[in-house]
Design a protein that fits this description.
Shape: rod-shaped
Strand order of the largest sheet: 1-2
Strand content: 5-15%
Length: 113
């Protein structure tokens, strides 16, 4: 085997390894690992979701449009996309069952006082 044949064989082997789906699966998995910053963001998101959802549930059976959008669209959806789940999901599912009121809604109890 000549030097050129050896180089071509080695290049063919190298290209085959790089093109295999197994190698790319490992590379993508390593890139997808959650670093400490991501874990902290998930933790902070979880804390805020739990705090707000609990407050809304304790308040009553309603939530304003603005509160709902803030909790579900801006906090929960990114939290879920980053890998968060569990208790926050259960509370958000409860929030989704609530009546959604206009942003200027004032409960009757507060009007009477």
């Amino acid at each position: 085997m000549s030097g050129i044949d050896l180089i071509q064989t080695l290049l063919t082997i190298l290209c085959s390894v790089l093109a295999s789906s197994g190698v790319w699966a490992v590379v993508l998995k390593l890139m997808d690992r959650k670093d400490v910053k991501t874990q902290m963001l998930i933790g902070l998101g979880h804390d805020r979701i739990m705090y707000l959802a609990t407050a809304y549930i304790n308040r009553g059976s309603w939530i304003t449009t603005e509160e709902y959008e803030n909790l579900v669209d801006y906090l929960y959806k990114p939290y879920e996309a980053m890998g968060g789940n569990g208790s926050a999901k259960r509370l958000v599912d409860e929030i989704k069952k609530m009546d959604i009121k206009p942003n200027d809604y004032v409960p009757q109890k507060e009007v009477e006082q």
